[in-house]
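Hi V.,

Quick status before I head out on leave. The structure for the redesign project is tokenized and pasted below; the design run finished overnight.
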């Protein structure tokens, strides 16, 4: 009987927590869960990571209007740290998928740089494009 009551409280608590999460966090977690085939423990950890990312992005949002370059730099740093946090919870097979994703991102970045250089863009303009791209 006590076990049933405990399960009921846990179920209700889980529903309440799920209702408090934003759609952005839910979408991010769903995407990562599908991409890496996360288990329940990993999903819970990814929720914490994504909620922290959302809070941090909200904290730097004011910079977008006042110091756009600083905002983009901080946003890039948050992206890098979030990837690192996610990497720590992944198993070896999942890390291999993440490495493939990062390699594809680097190739795409390299191609973008080459294209912008061909167009005659300055180093500062290229940096800004890369920061905006995220």
């Amino acid at each position: 009987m006590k076990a049933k009551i405990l399960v009921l409280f846990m179920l209700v608590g889980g529903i309440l927590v799920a209702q408090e999460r934003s759609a952005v966090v839910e979408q991010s977690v769903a995407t990562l869960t599908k991409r890496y085939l996360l288990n329940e423990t990993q999903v819970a950890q990814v929720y914490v990571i994504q909620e922290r990312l959302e809070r941090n992005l909200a904290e730097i949002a004011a910079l977008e209007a006042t110091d756009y370059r600083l905002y983009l730099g901080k946003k890039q740093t948050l992206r890098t740290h979030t990837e690192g946090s996610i990497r720590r919870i992944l198993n070896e097979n999942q890390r291999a998928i993440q490495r493939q994703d990062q390699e594809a991102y680097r190739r795409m970045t390299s191609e973008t740089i080459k294209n912008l250089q061909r167009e005659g863009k300055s180093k500062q303009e290229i940096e800004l494009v890369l920061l905006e791209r995220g």
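Above is the designed sequence. The two ends are 52 Å apart (CA to CA).

G. will cover questions while I'm gone.

Best,
W.
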